[in-house]
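Dear Dr. H.,

I hope your travels went smoothly. While you were away I took the liberty of generating a structure for the chain from your last submission, since the lab meeting agenda had it listed for discussion. I wanted you to have the full record in hand beforehand rather than looking at slides cold. The sequence, exactly as received, is reproduced here:
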Amino acid sequence: MAFASPRAMQTNEYILARKSQLKFYRSVELFKKVEGKGFVLYKRSGITLSDMRIDEGIHPEALYIKKADKLKGLQEAQKGFNKILQKDLRSANHTKIKETLVAVVDETFAEPRSGSLEGVSDTVDILISEYAQQSGVIRSLVDLSHTDYSTVLHSINVMAFTLGFCFYMGYSQAKTKLLGLSALLHDVGKTKIDQNILTAPRRLTNEEFEHMKSHTTIGYKILRECRFSENDIAYCALEHHEKADGSGYPNNKRNISRTAQIIGLIDCYEALTNDDRPYRMALGVFDTLREIIGRDVNAGKFDEEIYCDFVKSLGVMQVQEPSEEYAVSQAFLGENRGTSVNK
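The corresponding predicted structure, in token form, is as follows:
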């Protein structure tokens, strides 16, 4: 039974609800649009569509929420997806784990602001906690491919590699969470970049690349408004494309936070080994580590200690091409870490 909303005709107060969030709404009211009446209440606060015994697809095609409830709805969806993630992790359904992670991050990046971005903190907590019981979960995240390589998937992959690095290094839970969150949110500024530039099937023009580079400062501004206890998360978004020799962007800094140095190297590795472009195929592990990142390490752009530790962590995780990564780690590292990585 539909109940007339007291403010039904004030259409500017309502927005279309995201279908992916509908099943999670409990405190958020849902409305349907009725000709001649405007917006009328469809689901009251305090119950879910499931409580109403209404399955997905049976309810009206278009349901609406109040604009004022947009953030509340996202937060309920984040909690719902995190519960599903916990269930997926415990069932060891690796494909479902990645699908759920993509969903929760995609929902969060659709509304990247204070009050929403903090929600993925719980997501990282769940992954760290579950790793203690299932060490293979991080390996499975970077092993599994996905049909749509995007900022969301790239961010999840960088987070997975970063968590694997942290576990290999034996970092504390607090430090691991800081690095995991920094990795997951390092490219949040790209949510404000023109999609046509992000997905351009060609090399970017100089003007387009300058616009792309602004994702670092945009991400920093977004994250500075959030209620994270660590400033490193925002600074990582700003500095992850800086280089130790001052050749990076946006500010040509040499004094870069350790967090940004770690995420910057892992970000580069993930993009080169996973992102196929019409003008550039994704590279193999050996070529990426030795010929590209290794060259930049020798040039003073990346920290050699971080590089060597990351290569070792890849050998432990054994992702993508286990035999190749094992050979890479042996060839590069050996017993003498002080020598040039390309010798």
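Two observations you may find useful: Confidence is low (pLDDT under 50) at residues 319-323. Residues 70-91 form the longest helix (22 residues).

With kind regards,
E. W.
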